């Protein structure tokens, strides 16, 4: 078995799955999500599963429940027919030992009270209905906190989670060397939870931080191409634009500024872009000369790719100038209506724009609004050609 859990990447020994049948996540991760984060969605397809089934992961031989409706109805904690049911995670197990293990892991109890009780022999162990109740108890009774990042990220029993005073918790998060963490940080492992310096928010680990940075903040696609593997982030697009202006060649045209990411590595590329995109003052022969430069390239910006067919126009080279300008006028109108709708949704498009631009070759980018195939036959003009006039 070389399968690994899609969440924690550890070897997949026990798998938990719901009716959607995605058998890719280990039982500990599923239990932690359901029990601590109160998240009952499948990690793969995001379908909510009221019930999950836990069994040994055996690849093609993994026990498969095809119809979850055939599981015992209205189950109660403990043995249910040939299975064991765990209420807190709403999971059926076909193995009693693994059931007991997950049950112990999810047990919501106060480790401070547990210790006192075992010392004086009393047995009035209070059970907490959910994690928030336990957190409330810890704070009100003992003035202690659990680290919520560790609670969601660390694969240990809830009762094994470390408890911190407010000051210790702050130290734990920022440097990892609080009194409570002691030996663990001396061994050089934990250095505190990494922080997004822009948002001042800590994340459990580097993976979680990276996911945040790549979805919430910006990198320069030009710098990244020059120094692959080196990630420099900008808080928002405005900051990135300042960098574009200072270190690269940004097109200052209003329309291009609104489109974002119209920036070039060299002055020559910017000039070529200006010729193609903003050449309203050129004579017709100059413009025709400019249009003959490109030979074969294509542009890929997925948001435009789908409907390019509809908006773009195809010409024969030898068409009369008159037809050409009618067509260009038409695409100008398209461009205007399109740019207003784009402005409204610009914030939502930022991520996809950024992703798509990163794989556009910088030489190709300036010509993105033109698609020429064979100079003898046809070339295609899409909306941005409107800027010629
Ligand atoms: Zn896992
Ligand atoms: Zn699923
Ligand atoms: Zn307590
Ligand atoms: Zn922590
Ligand atoms: Zn951030
Ligand atoms: Zn840059
Ligand atoms: Zn421009």
TrEMBL record:
The keyword NAD does not apply. Residues 5-46 form the RING-type domain. Residues 301-320 have a biased composition (Basic and acidic residues). Keywords: Metal-binding, Zinc, Zinc-finger. Residues 300-320, 332-351 are annotated as: Disordered. InterPro entries: Znf-C2H2_ZNF598/HEL2, ZNF598/HEL2, Znf_C2H2_type, Znf_RING. The keyword Nucleotide-binding does not apply. This is RING-type domain-containing protein. It comes from Salix suchowensis.
